[in-house]
Amino acid sequence: MISGISPKASHSSTPNYSYVPKQAVSSVDEEKLGAGNLLYQINGTNSSLFSRNLRILDSFDDEYGGVIVDSERLPANSTVFASMLSFSISHWKSKGKKGIWLKLPVEKSDLVPVAIKEGFEYHHAERGYVMLTYWLPEGPSMLPANASHQVGVGGFVINDKNEVLVVLEKYCAPQFVGLWKIPTGFIVESEEIFTGAVREVKEETGVDTEFLEVVAFRHVHNVAFEKSDLFFICMLKPVSTHIMVDDHEIQAAKWMPLVEFVEQPLIQQDCMFKKVIDICIERLGKRYCGLSVHQVASTFDGKTSSLYYNVIDSQHNNCIGN
Fold it and tell me: I need a labelling partner for 153 at 20 to 30 A (CA). Which of 17, 67, 167, 293 fits?
């Protein structure tokens, strides 16, 4: 380690990645090189190597006073990376930066131990990369945490014969063997709740549907790897009736009379299952109003969002209300 460059690692709680790159920082920009008033005299045959290593990693400033390292311009050599990372941390500290976001692609996974040794912490990982963070100021990390929830959907589909579209799952917990249930699944990245419900029903049963409302949602904790779970029950209208089972996940699917569906012992014995079905039945009788989806633009982020709220539409008599 060269004198004058000895960054201290700071510990933070699990942080998150929601920053937007704003300004590129060039590693050869002399003003941003950040040596400041520090002078280094390097002699010997390896002087060119040391000179090359004493550069700042290419990065972007985020809008919260932090830094996002450019993952596409990382050095391939771990020794060079170690020197540049150490020098960059000292520079960013001197500039009053806050959080550092370091995304390491899988092909450069050998750089992970180097970053950990320097004081970085794991934040989250996907198939193609691992995200690491470093909180520069003294005190606890103020970086947002990694995603805390998974989001699931269930589609309650009932036809004009008062039959519910149900599935028998091929793989399930022992206590649910033999239970005919509504099609369910997880929302994928960047997918809307209402489109996810329609997709899951189509994938599992082959039946096309139209989203009507979210009739209820469940919130529970410590479900998968200590993550919480949000589960949205959606009322869907069938626009086709032919069933084509996805035999990878589903053992069987059918249209089951509503009364027969409700009278299943597992549903009668489970308070939550029974309550969900009761709500759906109330909605069918127009004695309950669910949440319909509306596209609303916001000036805060300039994006159009899906806002779910209750509307009592007397023109279409969708529900009587309270």
Answer: 17
